[in-house]
Fold this protein.
Amino acid sequence: MAEPGKYAYDRWVDSLGVPVHRGYFVEDLRTVPLGKWDQREADSCFIQLNGAEGITEVRVTEIPPGGTLKPWTLAIDETMYIVSGRGMTTVRHSEGPGRSFEWQKNALFMIPGGYTAELSNMSGTEPARVMSYNYMPLAMTVVDNAKYFLNNPFAYTRREPSTDENMYAEAKVQTADAPGGMPRQVWYGNFFPDMKGWDKLVPFKGRGAGGHVVFIRYPESNITNHMSVFPSRTYKKAHRHGPGRAIVIPDGEGFSVMWEEGKDKVVIPWHEGSLFTPPDKWFHQHFNVGAIPARYLAFHPPAQFAGYSEKVEDRRRDQIEYPQEEPWIREKFAAELKGHGTTSIMPEQAYKDENFEWDYKGE
């Protein structure tokens, strides 16, 4: 009989004896404690933050210096973000040859469901850490048996193995319709070599701070990402959406504030390597107090949890414009900047005019 309040995925994870980190955030994925996962013969941990339960999985695995992880086949798509180190991944399908590519810190790539991945550390002195993101908790709600998804001999795939040769080729940009019918650039590919240095960005109008963004899609996959970049000494508008997102910081220093409407606020300090998840329909707002542009990379849940299916009478309820925000927000930002010996560069007009927009210099 199922344990009340436990998802099938939770029962499986608990049976592994591997550390599980919970709460609102993980300060640093580079140092988060790990434990031996016997089946994988590797040091790993699971991260189940408030707002991701039963929907998405975040996992960190370490590759020892000069080591190679045991080959891994997952029946569902899995994205991987390199927290630290450099190495190589070989991906193969039972019907085709393996394809290998090298990676470094801040790389992002996707392993299609039904493909086997083998990850190696190319450094002989430093370990490498990999963050994985997938929809395993949701999948196990439908099929309550982890063995169905792990190293299943049935090599399921939506791809034609004959197309594998270009699977990890350079990503390509396309134009796609955004919610509301506005066109936007979307980058399609399975490998993005450096999210810390990625400079193919477009203005992210409407969300404030004069920020820029890249939207990422993986061919034939339901997993998506976006990365937002915004200037030093500015902050984004508060907004909310559905559960299941994982937000990792490739670069920068700052903090985020999260709160359920009408409830107390949770302040999350972050820097490179930090991870957090906004719970379902909690407002959250991002602040850059560092000396350089800050970057946050968001891993998206399935579309049914992204807010598209929600019936909201007034969409404006899901974003707070600067003139409507609580005074505490601006005061907190000023106090944090003062502690760094700096001051805000937010335009005063942004606090007076809901329709104010940053000058994107002809973009």
Remarks:
- Residues 172-351 form a domain with the Jelly Rolls fold (CATH 2.60.120.10).
